[in-house]
From TrEMBL:
Its EC number is 1.2.1.3. The active site is at residue 260. SUPFAM superfamilies: ALDH-like. This is Putative aldehyde dehydrogenase. One of its GO terms (molecular function) is aldehyde dehydrogenase (NAD+) activity. Residues 16-482 form the Aldehyde dehydrogenase domain. Belongs to the aldehyde dehydrogenase family.
């Protein structure tokens, strides 16, 4: 493995800053210290906000032509690609993700997503005709009715630990493309990989104050960034509980909030598709050990096929290699922390007490003396009221639930406070699509999946507000202005 990224400073208003209070970043695979980082002083976070406000109000970046902003951001991405090996090594060390996942699903997919976002943005108009009935135009003597898209202003981007690099890119790139000034605050659990964005901003020649990245061990800086009057928008990906806190912090200053929050997604197998359940089960835990808000951790199958499916997915999970993320053969690394591992244990115990049966896994692998490993686990749930069906576990735990008919399957899938994603499988795409249309969730994958700069994601209910990616994800960082233009009389 290559050495991890060497940068340990924060990037504020065009210059590198350090602090006096260090905090340690731990490797979840062996519980060693990856490095110690100095917290960004709170005074520097305040300065980052004020300089972002100044840079935006001056028009230094916002007034730049879209094609020129796009050119600068391609240079920004070029700089990230220069540190590919060190960046991937850092993602493996601080997040415990298998090497192949960090390389392909975070780095390569992240760069492709960002470049495609630039292309999508350039295809979208800054201004467009706004359709108004002719009689209204005539009555108001309006020659033109125009819808104009303008940047929101100063944006705080707060990213999670489970996909720090790609999640940062899907916030930073559209926010900067649309002319905003941006301050990135990564998770304290995985902050090292995000410091590379400061070097990219410097190399691309972004005006001072337009972009900053700050790190901390606690939440004081994040609270400042979500409540400061000079911040116009907060874009957050993380738990529903923290999302609710952020919404409350942003409310007094009427900030725009974009929240991608928790999930308890269902994967529904119509009777003709139960043979696909093994592959669906593997996808739940692969790469991030189940630590994905979109993971389809509730598997819904016909009652008459449930035992067959339980045997099938248990065999798949028994064959998965749990191990060091640096081992190319590993398919499942550790969860992020001892606390997250304990959460898996706690909810499984609650599930069993409520009638569930552990069919595979369910505990720490005995062969590992160190590291926050947890066995890929299959639970046989008696019904959807079980704690394992209602709570987001964020670990390698799959719950299998039987349904009577498709109406019952839809009812079970929708019986959740979450609504982020879902999957439906059938040899009859029309039948599967009919089910998909009835699900109260922000995305449904029918027999396949797509992750694209051109396709939006986001949640219903407690899974969030707004959308990321796609045209909606770009417009999320813009205000809409209506211009009514007529002759002077």
């Amino acid at each position: 493995m290559a050495e991890i990224l060497a940068e340990r400073r924060s990037y504020v208003a065009g210059r590198w800053v350090t602090g006096e209070t260090p905090f340690e970043v731990w490797n979840p695979a062996d519980e060693s210290v990856v490095t110690a980082l100095p917290c960004t002083p709170i005074a520097e976070i305040e300065r980052a906000v004020l300089e972002a406000r100044r840079s935006f109000d001056s028009g230094a970046w916002a007034a730049t032509a879209p094609k020129d902003r796009a050119r600068v951001l391609h240079t920004f991405l070029d700089r990230l690609e220069q540190d590919r090996e060190a960046l991937v090594a850092t993602l493996v060390a601080e997040a415990g993700q298998p090497l192949a996942f960090a390389e392909r699903s975070q780095f390569l997919s992240g760069i492709m997503l960002a470049r495609n976002t630039i292309d999508l943005y350039l295809s979208m108009p800054e201004e467009q005709a706004n359709p108004v009935p002719v009689d209204e135009l005539t009555r108001g003597r309006v020659a033109l009715s125009i819808r104009r898209y303008e940047p929101v202003g100063v944006v705080t981007a707060i990213t999670p630990y489970n996909a720090a690099f790609i999640m940062a890119l899907q916030k930073i790139v559209p926010a900067l493309l649309t002319g905003n000034s941006v301050i990135l605050r990564p998770s304290p659990l995985t902050p090292v990989s995000s410091l590379i964005f400061g070097a990219a901003a410097e190399a691309a020649g972004l005006p001072p104050g337009v972009f900053g990245v700050v790190v901390e061990a606690g939440s004081a800086g994040a609270e400042l960034l979500t409540s400061h009057p000079a911040v116009d928008m907060v874009s957050f990906t993380g738990s529903t509980a923290i999302g609710a806190v952020i919404a409350a912090q942003a409310a007094p200053t009427i900030k725009r909030v974009a929240l991608e929050l928790g999930g308890k997604s269902a994967q529904i197998y119509l009777p003709d598709a139960v043979s696909r359940a093994g592959a669906g089960a593997a996808a739940v835990v692969g790469g991030m050990a189940g630590q994905a808000c979109v993971a389809a951790t509730r598997m819904l199958v016909p009652h008459e096929a449930k035992e067959q499916v339980l045997e099938q997915v248990s065999k798949v999970y028994a064959g998965l290699k749990v191990g060091a993320p640096t081992d190319p053969a590993t398919s499942l690394g550790p969860v992020i922390s001892a606390a997250q591992r304990a959460r898996c244990e706690h909810i499984i115990a609650e599930a069993v007490a409520a009638g569930a049966t552990v069919r595979q896994g369910g505990r720490r692998p005995p062969e590992f003396e160190r590291g926050y490993y947890f066995q890929p686990t299959v639970l046989d749930l008696p019904d959807n009221s079980n704690p394992a069906a209602q709570q987001e576990i964020f670990g390698p735990v799959l719950s299998v639930i039987g349904y009577r008919d498709l109406d019952d399957a839809v009812t079970i899938a929708n019986d959740s406070r979450y609504g982020l994603s879902a999957q439906v499988y059938s040899a009859d795409p029309a039948a599967a699509t009919a089910v998909a249309r009835r699900l109260r969730t922000g995305a449904v994958n029918v027999n396949t999946a797509v992750f694209s700069a051109y396709a939006p994601s986001g949640g219903y209910k407690h899974s969030g507000l707004g959308r990321e990616r796609g045209p909606d994800g770009i417009r999320a960082f813009q205000e809409v202005k209506h211009l009514a233009i007529g002759e002077f009389r």
